[in-house]
């Protein structure tokens, strides 16, 4: 008894195959990529607090100067609308110059973190308005989906870990914090600034570890979502290469058109050289078209028979020359001039045809 094995994936549509390069490119153009926002946040926080450490003295000097300037110069001005406007612009410009390094680092870190994960990608697809996003049923499915539950667990885990890390830094400095009541202003500011920076760096490192794990999960989830069934791969191949049935029909139509075009040239030929039954090659010599005789039609077996029939109806002379017919059929394409190696043989045939025409 013979058993027939069927691949049920073609019927069930189960997506078990890895995505093809075209599918990956299409999803990327739509903005669907494996990306962890936690990695961006962690890198941004890390470099921001590193910048705080690097420009701490600069900021201390700038804000001290601003404090001194406000309470030693601005308080002596007569507050008119023009003076208030001038003070406001002066302070805004001063603060903008002060925070400009941090803003620059934030922009660079944000761009670098995205390039690190997904490379350069610009697409407006996610910004397009889609009505299915307003569907309450689809929205409820997204809210109560497995992915939403995973995101909730991740958020709680991040809050717990980051909170634990920052609290441990504060708890380790609790004695020093209590002693700041007896310290002067500069010492207190320096202490709280360094403590805040340590808390930020510790939180950024913890968040970076979580971000790497989250990126691994996002990568896994992305690969799972873009999987394809065997039927999907088959349909994609058809879209790229074209349906084999349609391609065969197009080729058949092209062959028929070429055949009709070739047959229409036979009445203008000077001679048809035959095998006599297996091959037929129609030759034409026109000085205004080419420097040498050229092939206007050729064929074997049934096509050769049709060429001979059209030649007889059009009163085109048929000359039997087996070696020449076979060689021309094999070496010369339609519309191509004959090679120099055939000049002598073809010239003799044409000369014979012209002699017969003159006698007629």
Describe the structure.
This protein folds into 2 domains: about 35-225, no CATH class; about 265-360, secretion proteins EscU (name from scop, 3-Layer(aba) Sandwich), CATH 3.40.1690. Helices cover about 65% and strands about 5% of the residues. It is built from 14 helices and 4 strands. The chain has helices at about 10, 20-30, 35-55, 55-70, 80-120, 135-145, 145-170, 175-180, 185-225, 230-240, 245-265, 300-315, 320-330, 345-360; strands at about 270-275, 280-285, 295-300, 315-320. It has a 4-stranded mixed sheet with strand order 3-2-1-4, with helices on both faces. A hairpin with a 4-residue loop joins strand 1 and strand 2 (about 280-285).
Task: Summarize the amount of helix as a percent range.
Answer: 55-70%
Query: Low-confidence segments, ≥5 residues, pLDDT <50?
Result: 1-12
Please indicate the percent range of residues in DSSP E strands (runs of 2 or more): 5-15%
Kindly state the number of beta strands: 4
Distance between the termini: 77 Å
The biggest beta sheet reads: 4 strands, mixed
The gross shape turns out to be elongated
C-alpha Rg (nearest Å): 42 Å
Query: Averaging pLDDT over every residue, what do you get?
Result: 78
Number of domains: 2
Structural class: mainly alpha
Give, in spatial order, the strands making up the sheet with the most strands: 3-2-1-4
How many H/I helices?
14
Helix-strand sequence = HHHHHHHHHHHEEEHEHH
Characteristics:
single chain, 360 residues, mainly alpha, name from scop, 2 domains, four-stranded mixed β-sheet, 14 helices, disordered N terminus
């Amino acid at each position: 008894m013979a058993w027939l094995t069927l691949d049920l994936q073609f019927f069930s549509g189960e997506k078990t195959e890895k995505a093809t390069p075209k599918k990956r490119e299409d999803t990327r153009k739509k903005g669907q990529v494996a990306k962890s926002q936690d990695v961006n946040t962690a890198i941004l926080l890390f470099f921001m607090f590193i910048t705080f450490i690097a420009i701490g003295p600069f900021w201390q000097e700038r804000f001290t100067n601003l404090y001194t300037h406000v309470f030693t110069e601005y308080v002596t001005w007569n507050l008119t609308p023009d003076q208030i406007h001038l003070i406001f612009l002066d302070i805004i410009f001063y603060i903008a110059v002060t925070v400009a390094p941090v803003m620059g680092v934030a922009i660079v870190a944000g761009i670098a973190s995205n390039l690190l994960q997904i490379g350069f990608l610009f697409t407006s697809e996610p910004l397009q308005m889609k009505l299915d996003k307003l569907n309450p049923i689809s929205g409820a499915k997204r809210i109560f989906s497995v992915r939403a539950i995973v995101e909730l667990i991740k958020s709680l885990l991040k809050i717990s870990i980051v909170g634990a890390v920052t609290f441990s830094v504060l708890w380790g400095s609790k004695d020093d914090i209590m002693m700041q009541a007896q310290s002067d202003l500069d010492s207190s500011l320096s202490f709280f600034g360094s403590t805040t920076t340590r808390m930020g760096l510790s939180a950024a490192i913890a968040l970076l570890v979580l971000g790497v794990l989250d990126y691994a999960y996002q990568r896994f989830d992305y690969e799972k979502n873009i999987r394809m069934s065997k039927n999907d791969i088959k349909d994609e191949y058809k879209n790229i290469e074209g349906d084999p049935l349609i391609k065969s029909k197009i080729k058949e139509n092209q062959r028929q058109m070429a055949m009709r075009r070739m047959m229409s040239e036979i009445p203008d030929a000077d001679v048809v050289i035959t095998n006599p039954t297996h091959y037929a090659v129609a030759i034409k010599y026109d000085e205004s078209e080419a420097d040498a005789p050229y092939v206007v039609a050729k064929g074997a077996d049934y096509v050769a028979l049709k060429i001979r029939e059209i030649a007889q109806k059009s009163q085109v002379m048929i000359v039997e020359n087996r070696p020449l017919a076979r060689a021309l059929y094999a070496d010369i394409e339609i519309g191509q001039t004959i090679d120099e190696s055939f000049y002598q043989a073809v010239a003799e045939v044409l000369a014979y045809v012209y002699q017969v025409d003159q006698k007629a």
